[in-house]
Amino acid sequence: MQPEDFVRAAAWGTAAGLITGLAEVFRKKDDPALANFVPLPKDPDFMGRDGETEAVVQGLRQGRPVLLWGMPGVGKSSIALAVVHTREVRNLFESRILWVTAHNDTLDSLCSKILRQMGAAEALKNMPSAEEKASVLRGALKQANVPVLFVLDQADNAPGARDFCRSVTPHTLVSSQDSMVDLLRVEVDTFPADSPLAGHLIEAKAPRGLTPQEKDLLPTVARQCGYLAQALVLAGGQLLEGYTLNDLSRALTEHGLDPLVDTVDPTRSVRATLDIAYDRLTPSLKRLFACFGVFKLLEAPVGADAVLAACGEGEHQDVNLLAARSLVTAVRGEAGRYTMHSLLWRYACEKLGDDPAPRARALAYFTKLAEKHGKEGWQDYREMDAALPHVFFLLRWAREHADRDVSLKGAVLLNVVPEFLDRRGYWAERVEWGQWALDTARVAGNKPLIANSAHHLAMALHQRGEPDKARNLYEESLKAKRELGDKGGIASTLGQLGRLAQDQGDYAGARKLYDEVLQLMRELGDKGGIASTLHQLGMLAQAQGDYAGARALYEESLKAKRELGDKSGIASTLGQLGRLAEVEGRPGEAADYYRQALVIFEGLNSPSAEVARKSLTRVTGDKGGSAGASGKGKA
């Protein structure tokens, strides 16, 4: 049972409080929420593009939204990355730069993405419209009164990016292949035909040094690559031992890219270099490359373990072999994580085809990952945060797939991430996908899945303020669990029915249900369940004004959680003790509890850290919200 406690409270409460809280985040350049947006280090092989870079900087200096516009693979993102690393832009915006991979985001999803990363996920359920979210961000920027630059990279939804510039802030740099009115357009083209930079880029990406004869051939190969950055990078990545630039030029000629022709179609050059690179891979590396198409690499990097799980074979070094050939990119500073250019990702998807097996294996991988974190009480959110775009991508695929077994795998995955989705503010998705999971389970007649799906959908509806629908689904879940003899599941659903009764003011009914849960947990010897139930009983006592009884229950719960090493649970109960002390008029004691909770939540990278920080600020008046040193800061 997951208790309703202080970490579920809105971090800033009212809209005005939310705006004030976000403004504080914008003001603090070193705030963890802003750190999540800091882009990758500048590409050490980036060269040239001085004219485009200066044009962007000048537009930003004038306070205008700027669009880096050009065909895919021309180097727009690299230029944007170079721009934000210039001293002038860093000084202009005082290093307050928020980098967002936009892709197909609408104004609504863009604002939601930013608010989640800034610790305001809980507030999203009270802001159903894009206009409300944009208004909150706009108000926070105005109140902060500091310069902040938003970078919307790979913004393929032109209206979404344009609306963001209009309704949130003009201090925006957008990279896109779509033209947009009202933005200062800086066109990014291929390298000039007479520029040596194209050849230098091939050489920079080559895994080995080039011979003098190969260097003489660089202008010819650059011309065959259409002077397009992505084709040049791929060309360089093929120059491994035993494969020369002359071999590459000959292969490009065989693909119809004549070295004697003055100009070459850049789009054809990317396809040709990709074909050459792919054809030179071993069968196992071809499968591994194709499996990158399983994941939503347009949104986030992916771990090598996930790709290898989808592939079903191979060694970790094989992924590095793909990176050496410039077919994937190792993320600097994040060991074992890789990304891929959009052109290469679409090529990988093409090679993957409709084969469901790798995607099904990826579903199973993320299910195990989520189950592991669930059993550990979601002690750390970072790994699932990184996996979330890929989880969503696979869930959509499973939902649309005709095969029942695939749909069931998707429903199983969805049933192990509800708490995570809840904490990250995906309220509407929980209900929509939860109904799909339950429908899938009912059609299959899978009773354990029916029990779990009904339970989680009921929780989502309960939180959305639909108690009658929630109660019916809890009863359906409870009936299935009793038929299965699942005592742990029975206890979990009884606990949720207790919360429902408590929320509706039926304290006697809630107490009866919680006592039944506690008895079941003791029969099962489930120490974690006992600790959580004691916490919930403490909340019930607090709601009834029995503060002494509440304190005793919280302290008993805290002792059990410390024995279990349940850091997230410890922090939750410390926070609730802080709320109790605050209600009783002991702000110093409350601050100490909040401070302890904040230290733990920050260590877990939990979104609840922001709630603890705001609670600490409320009782101390310290707007810095510092966890500080505390004599009671132990876990």
- Strand arrangement within the widest β-sheet reads 2-3-4-1-5
Structural class: mainly alpha
Number of helices: 31
Shape: globular
Helix content: 55-70%
Oligomer class? single chain
Radius of gyration equals 27 Å
User: Uncertain runs with pLDDT below 50, 5 residues or more?
Assistant: 1-12, 627-635
Distance between the termini: 21 Å
Q: What is the count of β-strands?
A: 8
Mean pLDDT: 87
Largest sheet geometry: 5 strands, parallel
Beta-sheet strand percentage?
A: 5-15%
Task: Give an account of the 3D structure.
- The protein has 31 helices and 8 strands.
- The protein has 635 residues and is mostly helical.
- The strands form 2 sheets. It has a 5-stranded parallel sheet, sandwiched between helices. Strands 6-8-7 form a 3-stranded antiparallel sheet.
- The longest helix has 20 residues, at 356-375.
Keywords:
mainly alpha, 3-stranded antiparallel beta sheet, globular, 5-stranded parallel beta sheet, 63% helix, single chain, 635 residues
Blueprint (SSEs and pairs):
Elements: H1 15-27, H2 32-35, H3 50-61, E1 66-69, H4 76-84, H5 87-92, E2 97-103, H6 107-117, H7 130-144, E3 149-155, H8 158-167, E4 172-176, E5 184-187, H9 197-205, H10 212-224, H11 229-237, H12 245-254, H13 266-279, H14 283-291, E6 302-303, H15 304-311, H16 316-324, E7 329-330, E8 337-339, H17 342-352, H18 356-375, H19 382-400, H20 404-414, H21 418-423, H22 427-444, H23 447-463, H24 467-484, H25 487-503, H26 507-524, H27 527-543, H28 547-564, H29 567-583, H30 587-604, H31 608-620
Parallel strand pairs: 1-4, 1-5, 2-3, 3-4
Antiparallel strand pairs: 6-8, 7-8
Helix pairs in contact: 1-7, 3-4, 6-7, 6-8, 9-10, 9-11, 10-12, 11-13, 14-17, 15-18, 18-19, 18-20, 19-20, 20-22, 22-23, 23-24, 23-25, 24-25, 25-26, 26-27, 27-28, 27-29, 28-29, 29-30, 30-31
